[in-house]
Amino acid sequence: MPPISHSPDTALWLLTTPHTSYALRIDDTGAPCHLAWGARLTLAEAEALVTPAGRPASSFEGRPPVGEELPVDGGTRYGPPSLQVRHADGSRGFAWQPLGHQVLRPAPGGHELVLRFRDSLCPLYVSLHYLVRDDTDVIERRTVLRNAGDEPLELLRADSAAWTLPPLHDYRLSHVTGQWSAESQLRRDRLPYGETVLTSRRGVTSHHANPWVMLDAGDATEDHGQVWSAALAWSGSWRLTVQRTPDGRSGVTAGVGHEGTCVPLAPGEEFTTPAFAGLYAADGFGAASRAWHAYTRTHVMPHARETAPVLYNSWEATGFDVDEASQKALAERAAALGVELYVVDDGWFGARRSDRAGLGDWTPAPERFPAGLGPLADAVHRLGMRFGIWVEPEMVNPDSDLYRAHPDWVLHVPGRRRTELRNQLVLNFARDDVADWAHDWLTRLVADHGIDFLKWDMNRAFGEAGWPGRHDGNDRLWTRYVTNLYDVIDRLRADHPPLRIETCSGGGGRVDLGILARTDQAWVSDNTDAVDRLAIQHGFGQIYPPRAMSAWVTDVPHQLTGHSVPLRFRFHSAMSGLLGIGGDLTRWSEEELAEGAALVAEYKRVRHLVQRGDLYRLTEPLGDEPTVVQYLAPDAGELLVLAWRRGPRHGSPRIPVRLRGLTPGARYRDAGTGVVHHATHLTAYGLSLDLPAGDWTSTALHLVRLGPGE
C-alpha cells in the first residue's frame, strides 16, 4: 500500500505507516477534517468512512469542537482554536480556501503530504505538512504560515497540529508533572470533560510538565490496549490543550507560546511551527514507548547509533573549588575506574568562585588554569578519556565583565526591576548579536582547548521578558530565542563535527524532541538519588529513550534525600541509562574503587542493550514488588534484566517476573552463572529473581541466546 493515497472524488487522503493509517479530507466548506487514526485501512475502507455532513445537535451548536485538522478561530467554532489570527484592523478570523496539494520525498524512506490553503479574505497562506516514514508509525505534522499581504498580522495562537481520537467509552490521560529535582512524575488520570491545559510559561520546556500526552480508553496496560500519543518538538514556552466533549469525543492541540503572547507575522514573513508528532499503538503503553524510542534514536537524535561513553563529572567532588592540579588527580582516579569521558563542571572560568559572579566571562581563570584548559585536556586525553566542560551560555551574573559592558543584552523591561534567580539574569538570545557572541566564544573555546563534550546548562526561567527597541519584541522573543538557540548549537556542531553535547536545565528543565534533535543526551534531574531516580527515569522513558538519559552514581548519604543505599544499587540505577559517575573519588575506599571498576566493566559489556535495545517495563517502580526493567536486543539474541528492591515485608510473596519478546523455543544462558533457561519458562512462567537479602538490594542478569548446537 503506498504511504500516501488520494481519492479526488471524496477529497480524501490516506497516510499509511507500517502498522497504522491516518485519514483526512477536505469538507464542503474547504476545511481539512479528520476521518480516522488507528489500524490500517485500504483507500476504499477509508472512503467508506465519509458520510454526509450531519445536522448540529441543536440550534445552539455550530461546528463540532473536535474533528478538524487545525481548528481555527472563525465562524461558529467554540472549541480551543489551533490557529487564531488578529488582522491589522483588529479583526479576527480565518476561513479555509483550498489551493491544492503536493506529495514530496524529503529523504529516503520519507513521504510528505502538503495541503495548501489561504484565508478567503486576507492573503494569509497556510500549509499543513504530514510526514510519514517507512520504518516508523510516528507521523510528524507541522504548519507553515506566510503573510503575503502588506499589513502585519498577529498569530494569537499558532499550534503545530490538532489530533483527533475516535469516540471511546471513556478517556484516560497520561502525562508527567514535577518540579526541580522531582521531574517526570508519571500521572494517569481519567480525562475530565472540558479542556485540560498543560503548559510552560517559563521560556523553557520546564521541570513542571513536558509537552507530550498519551490517551487511552482507561483499559490499556503495558502490554495491551490501544494508546494514542503525541509529542511537541519545542524547547521554549508551550501550550497543549486536551479536550473532552459532551458528545463523547477527545482531541489535542499544541504549539508554541502561552496565553498573553503572540507570534508576530510581518509582511512577507513566514513562520514554521515545530513538529507535533503523533503515534497510534495497538499493544499498550510499552509498545508506544518502544516506538517513540526507536523513532527518536533513528530520526531525531543526531548520533544515537554511537555508543555513549562512561562519564565522570567533577561537580560533587569539587564544587566551585576547581583548579588544574585537583582536576588532574580526579582524572587519574576516574580513568582507573574505566571512565571514558571526563567533564569539568562549574567554576573553571572568570571570577566564578560561587554562583554570585562570573557567568558571561568565558575564559579560564588564570590563577586556576595558568595556561588555559589545554594542559588539563591534554592530560585527560593521555589517560585515554575524552574531555568535556560545563557551560551556561544563555546566562549572566550582574557581577560580570559581560554585564557591565552590555547591560542591555538581558531580557528586561525599561524602568522595571531586573529580578534575579540564582543570582543571574537571562541573556536575550532572540537578539542576533547575542547569539553571534555566544557562537563566537563557544567555537573558539572548543577549538582552542581540545574540548570533546559540552554540558550545556540553563539554570533559570525567563523574567521581565522584554526586548526594548523592537515594537514587537516582547512577543517575538519567545520564539526567536529558541530558534536562535537552535541555530547557535547547529552552527557549533557544524564547526566541530566530533563535538558532543548534553542538554541540561537545572536538571530536566529542557528535555523535548526539539533539543534532542541537536544534542546527544539529556541530564534528567539534579536529583541523583538512586531510589528517587527509579521513578524519575520511569516517567522520562515513557517517550524518551534510555540512549538519551544521563544517570550518575553519587555519594551517600545523598545530599537531597539522606538515603544511604549500597554502591551496587546506585550503579544498577544509573546503568539503566547512560552511566555516569559523580561522586568524590578521593573519598572512595579501595574496596569501593575496585567494586566501581568491576561495575563499570559490567556496564560496558551490556550497554549496547541499554542504549540500542527495546525497553520493557516489567513492574511499576517502588512498589511492594521489585522494580524490574528489561532491555532486549532487536534480534532477541540477548537481553539485560535490572531489578531493585527496597526490602521485602516478612511473608510477602515472591512472584516470578515474566520476560518479554524472547525467541520462542530458544534457550538463553546467564552470562554470569552459566545457568541455561528456556524461553518458554522465562516468558510464560517467569524468572525468579535472585535478589540478596536486606534493604535496597539489586541485581543485573545478562542472558544470551544459545545457538542450535549449543
CATH superfamily of the largest domain: alpha-galactosidase from lactobacil brevis
Give the biggest sheet.
8 strands, parallel, barrel
CATH fold-level assignment of the largest domain = Beta-galactosidase, Chain A, domain 5
Strand order of the largest sheet: 21-22-23-26-27-28-29-30
Which geometry do the CA atoms define?
globular
CA radius of gyration is: 27 Å
Terminal Cα separation, in Å?
Answer: 42 Å
User: What amount of the residues lies in strands?
Assistant: 25-35%
Q: Taking all residues together, what is the mean pLDDT?
A: 96
The counted number of beta strands is: 36
CATH architecture call of the largest domain: Distorted Sandwich
What's the helix count? 13
- How many distinct folded domains? 3
What fraction, in percent, of the residue positions are helical? 10-25%
> What is the structural class?
alpha+beta
Q: List the uncertain runs.
A: none
* CATH C-level label of the largest domain: Mainly Beta
Provide tags for this entry:
8-stranded parallel beta barrel, 3 domains, Immunoglobulin-like, TIM Barrel, 710 residues, 6-stranded antiparallel β-sheet, Beta-galactosidase, Chain A, domain 5
